[in-house]
Amino acid sequence: MQRMKYPLNSARIALSILFISFVFFLLPVYAQQKGEVKKEGLEVKAGQLAPLFALRNLEGNYISLKNYCGAEDTKVPAVLRKEKYIVIIDFFSTICIPCIEALPALHRIYEKYKDKGLKMFLVNIDPKPEEVLPKFIKENNIAIPVLLDMYSKTLEKYGFESVPHTVLIDKNRKILAVFKEEKDIEKKLDEKLSQILK
């Protein structure tokens, strides 16, 4: 009976290796092909599906990305389907100088396209937003909806380690462009939106 242990152990080792290979190599490849999952620490880029999120605003209401863009649910009658939008999300902090400098440009884009099918959200990563945001919003005359990401979970989900980052997403939830501390953010966004939202 002792001699049977070695073949059994060898078989178990082989099966373990196959399982580990499947989990660490095949599953990520399949997920990346679907555009749903990215490798940890890798920034999202154009062509990928934007990671879903549901974030709270200062009023305590949760805003979910899937309510504004994504594939149509063919099971729902056309008359009951929600309108889809082009979405811009901008990650920012109240102590980030480039973030503050970009606000006027983002406001101009928001005002120009908000009635043409654009939704824009400012995603704040300050750890205690209730203490700093109300004053910041008032001082900077912010009209763009602000969402709270105080633990930076959504920032991490998008693979970002810093702010500002601005993501342009189409109606099907596909990322059209990612901007990192872009000096000409207004010009770049306007060029793309003018072609999409006419």
From TrEMBL:
CDD domains: TlpA_like_family. It is found in: Cell envelope. Keywords: Cytochrome c-type biogenesis, Disulfide bond, Redox-active center. The keyword Disulfide bond applies. GO terms for biological process: cytochrome complex assembly. Coiled coil: none annotated. One of its GO terms (cellular component) is cell envelope. It comes from the Bacteria. Residues 44-198 form the Thioredoxin domain. GO terms for molecular function: antioxidant activity; oxidoreductase activity. Its main location: other. PANTHER family: THIOL:DISULFIDE INTERCHANGE PROTEIN DSBE (PTHR42852). This is Thioredoxin domain-containing protein. It comes from Candidatus Desantisbacteria bacterium CG1_02_38_46. The lineage of its organism: Bacteria, Candidatus Desantisiibacteriota.
